[in-house]
C-alpha cells in the first residue's frame, strides 16, 4: 500500500548563509541539525526526522528542490515506475548525497520544479521526546513552528501537474480556482495528509516558489508570530488574516533572500472522498484573503 | 491501495429519543438528517456525508456500533478477507439497512464492539457548500462541532485489538500506556487520519463505550462549549483542560442517557512513520489530564 | 469627588436610517432601544444604560455629538464651572431633549466637536441581568460587542484639547505622538477609565470623526468579527492587526454612511500615575499598525 | 479629588525564602528588584513601580500586609482622617521602612488584615519602556503576568469591611453573595479600577488570605500558565475554568509555602454606576466555578 506521507523537505537557495541561518533559527525558530559544504540542515521542534529545511548558498533565491517522504522503501520503485509511465524521467539520488538522507527518486514536475521521493532519513526525535512527554518544550526561540507545512509553487500548466499529483502520487485536490466556464485552472490545492494542502500551485512562471509555509497551532500563535516579525524587523507581505481557501489563519513575510515564508494555522480536515471546492477566478481575492477580498500586487509578485 | 478514511459513524443507544435529539441538535448542535423506526440520523455542519451519528432508542445506553469509511467500494472485499484471516467472522449488511447507507462489512472487534466498514453513503454536503464557500456558517446552534472526531472504548485484551487495527486495518499506534516493564498494555491510541487518534482503547470491561468525541477548532471553542454546557445545565465530567496524550484541549460531559461526550480541539499531527509515544501506567494521570495530573474516579467509571 | 466615568454615548449622523439601523443591529449586533423623530437609540448587550449610540438621519455622515457620563448629578455644575474657566461656553441641554436622558452640560471642544457631560439616563440593564448571571447571552447577532469603547477624532490644536481633557476633565494622557524635538503634538491618547484610551485625537481638520470603536473580548472575537464583515460584505479599512499604541487588537471598517468603525480588544491597563508613552512621528506607522509598520492612505483619509 | 489607584502591593509570608524567590521569578516570572533583611522585592514586567510583591521569611505563610496606592501624596491625610472617623486607628509608616517606598498610612481592616495606603514609591518602568515600545518583551520567564491583579481575603464581618471600602475608600461593590433573604453577606467583590475586583472577601476566619491573583492577557495565557505549572510540578488547586463572578478565566495553584495564587484573565469592565450583581449563596458554586458548578473542598480550605 504505497502512500506519500507528507512534504518531507524543501531546499531553499539563499544569498547569504549566515544571515539566513540566523533568521531561520532565531526568528523562525528552527534547530540547526547539521552542515555540509554550503548547505545547512534544519528541523522544527515537533518533527522527528533529521531535517525538513535545507538552506543552500546560491546566487539567486528560490526552491532548489522539494521532496515527499513515502511510507516504505519499496514505494520508491513503485512510484518510480508510475512517474516514468506518466512521462517524466527519473534518476536515483544516492544515499548520503545530502546529510542524513537515504536514497531518493528524483524527477522534474510538469511545472519545472525539481522533486524527490524518499523514505530513509535519520531519526532525531522531537524536542519533547516519546516517553511521558510534555505538550511543548521550554526554551524555544522565535515563532517555533511545529513543522514544515506546505509549499505554494507557480507554473504554467496546472492541469497537468494536478493530474500528476492525483494520478501518480495519489493526492486529492481539495480546492481549485477556475476561469469562467472552468476553461482554465489557475489555482490547484493538493493534499496527501488530512490538511487542506500539502502542496499547491497557482498560475505563473514555471519552476518558481511562491512561498514555504510553517505550521503553528492557532490564531493566537499566528498573531504572536506577527508580533515577533515586527520585533525583528522582518518585512511583511501579508499581516494576519484568514484564507477563504483552506480556511486557515495566516501571515506572509520574507526571509533575508526574498523567499516568501508563511506561518499558517488551522484549516479544515481534508479527506480523499471530499468533493473539490471550486473558486471562480473572479473570487480569487476572497479565496486568498478572506477579509481584504482582493489580491495585493506584492502577493502576486516576488517569486523566487 | 486500500485505506480506511476515517471513523465515519457511531450509533449510540439512548433511553429517550426526544430528549436525546433535543440535546444533540440544540446543545451539541448537529443537524437531523433523517429518521427511520426508532433511529434518528445526524451530521455535523462540516461533514459531507448523510450522517455520522445515529441515535437509537434502547433500554440501555452505550455504543450500538461504530463504522469506518473506506476509500473505495473494492476495499470492502479487501478488508473482509483480511478480517477473516485475522480470525474474525464477517457478515455483509445490505444496502439501505439503515437510512442513506450502502453495503457494509460487519464484524466484532476483539474487544467485543460491533464494527463495520463501508464506502457508500449519500452525500449531503457541508453547511458552507463547495462553491466560493465562507469559512463557517451563520446560524448554527450550541457547540456546533466540525465533525465526529474519535471514540474511546474499553476492553480487556488491548494487545489483540491493537494488532487488529495495525495489521488488518493499517492504522498507526500514536501512543500507548503500559505497566512496568511494558508487561501489560492498558491504553492504546490508534490513527488512520493525521490526528492523534481516530479510535482508542483503555483497559476495562469489553464492549463498553467510554466516550464519543466531537471535533472543534480551538481552545477558545472548547471553552465556549463549556460555557454552553453550563447554560444548558448539562452535567460535566471534566472541565476544560489539556491532555498529555494527544496534547489536545478537552471537556467531557454526559448526554441525557449517560453516554459520555467530549469536545476536543488541537493535538499534534500523527504520521505513519512516527514512533509510538509511551506512557508509564504510573503517569496515566498526567497522560489523560495534563493539569490535574491524576485520574478522577468519575472518569474511570460511567461506561455505557 | 467629581469624576468622569466613561464615554457614555456618541451620536452619529447617517445618510439612510433604515440601512444604518440594519447594519448596527445585525452586523454590529447592538440592540435598538428606542426611536424619536429621525433618531434611533441603541445599546450593546453588556451596557446598563438606555443607549450608547444614537443614529440621526442627516445629509452628511460624521459625529453629531459625543458625551461623557459623570459620577453624580452634582458633577455637572462642578465641571460646568471648570469648563467656563477654561474658556469654553457651556449651555444646558434640558431633560428629555433626547430619549431617556436627563439634563446635560453642552460645550464645544477646542477641536470643534460638540461634547456633553451628563449623569442621568434610564437604566435598562444588560442582557444577562444582575441575579446569578451567565457570562454571556445566547442569541446575540453579529459582532455583539460589550460596549462603545472609544472615539478617535481629528483636530488642529492637540495641545489645547489635551490640556482641556487633563486639566478640566481629569483625564490622563497614556500616549502621545510628537514631531522631532517634541515640537508638535500630532497624536494624543486620553483616558478616564483604566483602558488605554477613552478618547483620542490625531492631527487633522477640526470637528471630524476618524472612528468609533466597539469593545470585544479577545483576539478571537476580533477575528470572528472580521469573518462576519466579509460574510456581510462590509468594506474593510484595516484587516486584523495589533496597535503599537495601546497594544490592542483591531479591525477597521465602514458603516453604510462611511463612518469608520473599529472592533477593538485588549490593550494594557492605564493608571493615573503612568508616564505618558511617547512615539516619534516618524514611528507613527508602527504605533498605529504594529505589523504593517506604515500608515495606509485610506486610514489617513475618509474622515466624516 | 482623592482616589485609590489600585492594589499596589502585597507582602506574603513565606517559609523558605530561596525556594520562594525561585518560584516567583522562574515559574510566576516576576523580576527581583531588591532585597533587604529577610525580604525580597519583586515586580511584574508591565508594572512601573519598584515592586508589587514582597516575600518575607516567616514561620507561617499568609499575608503580612496589603497596600493601595493613592493618586497624590495629599490623599494620605485625606484618607487618614476618614479612616479614623470610621473608627480604625491609623499609624504612619515612615519613609524607607521598606525598600524604595515613601511614607504610608497603616491600619487594620475590620477583617483583621493589615492594610496601608501610600503614594510614593520608586519608579523603575516596565520591560518595554515608554519610547516607541514593543507590545511585550522578549525573554520573560514562566507565566510572566502583567501585574498583581487582586486579593481574596477571608473575614467574619463582610458587611462592615464592605462599608469600609465603599464609604471610606470610595470603592464600588461589583458583586455580592448573600444567604436567603439577603440576611447575611458571605461574599463581597470590590473595585476601584474598572476591573471586576481589586479586592474581595469571602466569609471565613479573620485575617486570612485566600489567594493573590496575577493578571494575564487571555484564556490562551491562562492555559499556557496551566501547562507551565505542570512542567514545573506546581500543585494545582483549580485547573482552567471560568468564574461566574467577574466572568474571568482562571487557574489556582500554590506557592512553595502554601499561599494560593491565581492566574486571572478577562472579566467585564466595572463602573461606579453599575448595580451590584447578586448571587444566592445556594448558587455560589456556579458563581465561583461556572463550569463545575460546585465548590471543591480544597478551595474552601487552605487559607494562609
Would you spell out the secondary-structure blueprint of this structure?
The structure is a homotetramer of 304-residue chains.
Chain A: E1 4-14, H1 17-27, E2 31-36, E3 39-43, E4 53-57, E5 62-70, H2 74-86, E6 90-93, E7 104-108, E8 114-118, E9 147-155, H3 158-168, E10 172-178, E11 185-191, E12 199-203, E13 208-215, H4 219-231, E14 236-242, E15 249-254, E16 260-265, E17 277-280, H5 284-288, H6 297-300
Parallel strand pairs in A: 1-4, 5-8, 9-12, 10-17, 13-16
Antiparallel strand pairs in A: 1-5, 2-3, 3-4, 6-7, 7-8, 9-13, 10-11, 11-12, 14-15, 15-16
| N-to-C span of chain A | 36 Å
- By CATH, the topology of the largest domain in chain A is 2,3-Dihydroxybiphenyl 1,2-Dioxygenase, domain 1
* CATH architecture assignment name of the largest domain in chain A: Roll
Provide the helix percentage of chain A: 10-25%
Assembly level:
homotetramer
Largest sheet of chain A: 9 strands, mixed
Q: Which stretches of chain A of 5+ consecutive residues score pLDDT under 50? A: none
- Name of the CATH class of the largest domain in chain A: Alpha Beta
**Total strand segments of chain A:** 17
* DSSP summary: helix tally of chain A: 6
Largest interface: A-B, 48 and 48 residues
CATH superfamily of the largest domain in chain A: 2,3-Dihydroxybiphenyl 1,2-Dioxygenase, domain 1
| SSE succession of chain A | EHEEEEHEEEEHEEEEHEEEEHH
Keywords (chains A, B, C, D): Aromatic hydrocarbons catabolism, Dioxygenase, Iron, Metal-binding, Oxidoreductase, Repeat
Protein name (chains A, B, C, D): Metapyrocatechase
Subunit structure (chains A, B, C, D): Homotetramer.
Family (chains A, B, C, D): Belongs to the extradiol ring-cleavage dioxygenase family.
Amino acid at each position: 500500500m504505497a502512500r506519500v506521507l507528507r512534504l518531507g523537505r524543501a531546499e531553499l537557495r539563499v544569498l547569504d548563509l549566515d544571515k539566513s541561518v540566523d533568521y531561520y533559527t532565531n526568528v523562525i525558530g528552527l534547530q540547526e541539525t547539521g552542515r555540509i559544504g554550503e548547505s545547512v540542515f534544519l528541523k522544527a521542534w515537533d518533527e522527528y526526522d533529521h531535517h525538513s529545511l535545507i538552506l543552500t548558498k546560491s546566487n539567486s533565491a528560490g526552491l532548489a528542490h522539494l521532496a515527499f517522504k513515502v511510507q516504505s522503501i519499496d514505494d520508491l520503485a513503485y512510484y518510480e515506475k508510475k512517474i516514468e509511465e506518466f512521462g517524466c524521467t527519473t534518476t536515483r539520488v544516492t544515499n548520503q548525497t545530502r546529510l542524513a538522507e537515504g536514497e531518493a527518486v528524483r524527477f522534474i514536475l510538469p511545472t519545472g520544479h525539481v522533486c524527490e521521493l524518499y523514505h530513509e532519513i535519520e531519526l532525531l526525535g522531537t524536542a519533547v521526546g516519546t516517553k511521558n512527554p510534555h505538550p511543548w518544550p521550554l526554551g524555544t526561540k522565535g515563532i517555533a513552528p511545529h513543522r514544515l507545512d506546505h509549499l505554494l509553487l507557480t507554473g504554467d500548466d496546472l492541469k497537468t501537474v494536478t493530474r500528476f499529483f492525483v494520478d501518480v502520487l495519489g493526492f486529492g485536490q481539495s480546492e481549485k480556482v477556475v476561469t469562467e466556464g472552468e476553461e482554465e485552472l489557475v489555482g490547484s490545492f493538493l493534499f496527501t495528509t488530512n490538511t487542506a494542502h500539502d502542496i499547491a500551485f497557482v498560475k505563473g512562471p514555471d519552476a518558481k516558489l511562491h512561498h514555504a509555509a510553517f505550521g503553528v497551532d492557532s490564531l493566537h500563535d499566528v498573531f504572536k508570530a506577527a508580533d515577533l516579525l515586527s520585533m525583528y524587523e522582518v518585512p511583511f507581505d501579508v499581516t494576519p488574516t484568514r484564507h477563504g481557501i483552506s480556511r486557515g489563519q495566516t501571515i506572509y513575510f520574507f526571509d533575508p533572500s526574498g523567499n516568501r515564508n508563511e506561518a499558517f494555522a488551522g484549516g479544515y480536515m481534508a479527506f480523499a472522498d471530499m468533493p473539490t471546492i471550486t473558486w471562480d477566478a473572479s473570487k480569487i481575492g476572497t479565496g486568498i484573503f478572506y477579509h481584504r477580498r482582493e489580491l495585493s500586487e506584492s502577493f502576486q509578485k516576488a517569486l523566487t
